[in-house]
């Protein structure tokens, strides 16, 4: 009896759920130089008298509310007989359609797409690029519905590159909305080539000319994929797509589960810049594990309607930043010194940033939406990057693990553990507490000290202790007090103050951002004069500065300040024990040929 009632309830619930809904999208681009994508969305199989469609406010991986609905002018809807249905806008990104008596609904809108970055969409007569969250709406409450997308390319566009599953000529399928918008689409006449690595077929789609050499890229990108697959123990994709935009002003990369978009300077493929490119490849590729699969609870399934908060971006972006350089070492691109210079450079950057004493890295993660992605003239005084600080904490944890397990385990083992416990078992994200608990279980000890001091606190890490494990003596090579005014000022015409360091002489004695510096000691100065003059001063020296603030002239007498900045370096101090750990830490594990 009980069982029968349960079954009946289950059936009733099933018919009310979204399982019967069917969604298909059509994408057109008939007038590419108007920069509008034409979108048609056909929805059938629903019974409600109204339907809400929504445009996301953000793109996963890029933690800023971008209000993609700002690019939509009008939304119209018709039923299966072509009769116009009433459409009402009820919030900044929600349209409500009256669906009384309608069996299916055809929704039409155009999207203005003229922002070429990895996180937005773009169309002109050279190509179309879509990041789905800025083009495709979803039916509210039905993001789990599968469907099809058919694309009509502009007449001169001959190629479509996307990791969506192809079902026919220019027809693709998706299993839910998350997948649809996690597969960016490049449409145009891009050059494509393939390489196989880590048991995965990789396609590279190149938009725009550049100084790249295909055989070199095939070899180098494959080495990075091999190093990463080895670290994580398995590569979950069968196919993977790199969309690469070769442009003048690049915006970096954005990660997806089975693809990535990289936007780089078109001349990046030679010399020192090329290492920067390979490190970007290593970074975005590693995200297919770290953040796209192994992830905090807030980061998938996504809420496209508002900010998705997590304290853990220092793990998602920081660990990935640590690994992007480490993989270049493991794949043989950096020698030991080059790698150590990268690490010490990041430490010096973080430890000399005033905001590092103000904002802990957990809050830097949580507030990415209003701080990291919305920098102001005061940001360096009050914030620290979860990329850089997270990279350092990843390095310290790696060294701690290596020491603890006597160079038989490293951070890879912990990442594989997280991947297994959360992604492979249940495909779920972890909470902040679950992350710490997994680390503690892995290490077999309480790690509160680490989280309290370094993640939720701003205490300077005990670098010396961590680097001693691998035979590197860590110390500040220069703690002398140097003259320091604390003003950043620039301008070819007027010399305008763009930044003031917190606690500096400039702040304490009256200068402010936006002040125009006109004269020093009665003489007009330009940027060169000003920079040269400041260099001649010692702490305590007085001078007069004439400024204009909102066109009111003021004279201040300033006294030059002083500051001891940190310049950390490593000195090798090897013995058998720590040299073994060092060699394991910076091992090269992809043989050169
Ligand atoms: Zn990243």
Structural key phrases:
Zincin-like, alpha+beta, six-stranded antiparallel beta sheet, binds zinc ion, Immunoglobulin-like, 16 helices, 31% helix, eight-stranded mixed beta sheet, globular, 593 residues, Neutral Protease, domain 2
Structural description of this entry:
It is a single chain. This protein has four domains: about 20-185, Immunoglobulin-like; about 190-275, Zincin-like (2-Layer Sandwich), CATH 3.30.2010; about 290-455 and about 575-593, Neutral Protease, domain 2; about 480-565, Pdz3 Domain. It is built from 16 helices and 31 strands. The chain has an eight-stranded mixed sheet. Strands 24, 25, 26, 27, 28 and 29 form a six-stranded antiparallel sheet that branches. Helix 5 (about 315-330) packs across helix 9 and helix 6 packs across helix 9. The longest helix is centred in the middle third of the chain and has 19 residues, at about 215-230. Bound molecules: zinc ion. Zinc ion (ZN) binds near residues 283 and 287.
Per-chain topology:
Blueprint: H1 2-16, E1 22-28, E2 36-44, E3 50-54, E4 72-79, E5 84-85, E6 87-91, E7 94-98, E8 104-112, E9 122-124, E10 127-130, E11 138-139, E12 147-152, E13 159-161, E14 165-168, E15 171-174, H2 177-181, E16 185-188, E17 191-197, E18 200-207, H3 214-232, E19 239-247, E20 252-255, E21 259-265, H4 271-286, H5 313-330, H6 336-351, H7 361-366, H8 379-382, H9 386-404, H10 411-426, H11 432-443, H12 448-455, H13 463-468, E22 472-476, E23 482-484, E24 487-490, E25 495-500, H14 505-508, E26 516-520, E27 523-524, H15 527-535, E28 542-549, E29 552-559, E30 561-563, E31 568-572, H16 576-585
Parallel strand pairs: 1-12, 18-19, 19-21
Antiparallel strand pairs: 1-2, 2-8, 3-7, 3-11, 4-5, 4-8, 6-7, 9-10, 10-16, 12-15, 13-16, 14-15, 17-18, 20-21, 22-31, 23-30, 24-25, 25-26, 26-27, 26-28, 28-29
The structure holds zinc ion.
């Amino acid at each position: 009896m009980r069982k029968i009632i349960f079954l009946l309830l289950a059936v009733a619930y099933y018919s009310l759920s979204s399982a019967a809904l069917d969604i298909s999208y059509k994408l057109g681009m008939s007038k590419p130089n108007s920069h509008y994508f034409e979108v048609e969305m056909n929805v059938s199989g629903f019974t409600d008298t109204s339907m809400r469609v929504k445009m996301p406010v953000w793109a996963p991986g890029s933690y800023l509310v971008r209000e993609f609905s700002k690019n939509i002018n009008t939304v119209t809807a018709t039923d299966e007989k072509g009769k116009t249905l009433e459409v009402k806008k009820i919030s900044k990104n929600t349209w409500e359609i009256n669906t009384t008596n309608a069996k299916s609904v055809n929704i039409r809108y155009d999207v203005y797409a003229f922002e070429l970055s990895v996180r937005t969409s773009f169309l002109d007569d050279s190509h179309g690029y879509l990041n789905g969250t800025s083009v495709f709406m979803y039916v509210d409450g039905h993001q789990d519905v599968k469907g099809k997308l058919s694309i009509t390319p502009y007449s001169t566009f001959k190629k479509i590159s996307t990791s969506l599953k192809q079902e026919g000529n220019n027809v693709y399928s998706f299993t839910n909305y998350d997948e649809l918008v996690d597969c960016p689409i490049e449409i145009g006449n891009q050059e494509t080539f393939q390489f196989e690595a880590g048991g995965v077929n990789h396609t590279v789609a190149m938009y725009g000319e550049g100084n790249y050499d295909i055989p070199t890229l095939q070899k180098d990108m494959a080495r990075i994929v091999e190093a990463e697959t080895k670290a994580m123990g398995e590569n979950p994709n069968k196919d993977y797509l790199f969309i690469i935009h070769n442009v003048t002003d690049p915006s970096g990369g954005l990660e997806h589960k089975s693809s990535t978009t990289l936007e780089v300077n078109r001349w990046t493929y030679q010399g020192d810049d090329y290492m920067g490119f390979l490190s970007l490849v290593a970074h975005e590729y590693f995200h297919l594990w770290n953040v796209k699969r192994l992830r905090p609870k807030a980061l998938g399934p996504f809420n496209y309607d508002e900010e998705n908060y997590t304290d853990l971006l220092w793990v998602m972006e920081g660990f990935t930043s640590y690994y992007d350089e480490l993989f270049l070492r493991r794949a043989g691109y950096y020698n030991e010194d080059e790698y150590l210079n990268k690490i010490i450079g990041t430490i010096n950057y973080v430890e000399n940033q005033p905001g590092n004493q103000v904002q802990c890295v957990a809050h830097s993660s949580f507030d990415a939406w209003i701080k990291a992605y919305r920098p102001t003239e005061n940001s360096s005084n009050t914030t620290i990057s979860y990329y850089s600080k997270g990279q350092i904490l990843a390095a310290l944890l790696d060294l701690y693990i290596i020491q603890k397990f006597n160079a038989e385990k490293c951070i890879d083992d912990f990442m594989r553990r997280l991947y297994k416990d959360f992604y492979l078992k249940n495909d779920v994200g972890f909470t902040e507490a679950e992350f710490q608990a997994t680390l503690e279980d892995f290490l077999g000890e309480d790690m509160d000290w680490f989280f309290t001091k370094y993640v939720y606190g701003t205490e300077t890490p005990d670098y010396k202790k961590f680097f001693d494990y691998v035979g590197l003596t860590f110390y500040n090579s220069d703690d002398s007090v140097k003259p320091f005014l604390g003003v950043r000022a620039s301008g070819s015409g007027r010399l305008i103050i763009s930044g003031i360091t917190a606690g500096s002489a400039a702040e304490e004695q009256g200068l402010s951002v936006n002040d125009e510096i006109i004269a020093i000691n009665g003489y007009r100065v330009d940027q060169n004069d000003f920079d040269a003059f400041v260099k001649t001063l010692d702490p305590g020296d007085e001078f007069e500065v004439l400024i204009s603030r909102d066109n009111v002239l003021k004279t201040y007498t300033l006294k030059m300040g002083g500051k001891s900045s940190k310049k950390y370096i490593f000195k090798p101090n090897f013995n058998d024990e720590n040299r073994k750990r060092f060699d394991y830490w910076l091992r090269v594990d992809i043989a050169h040929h």
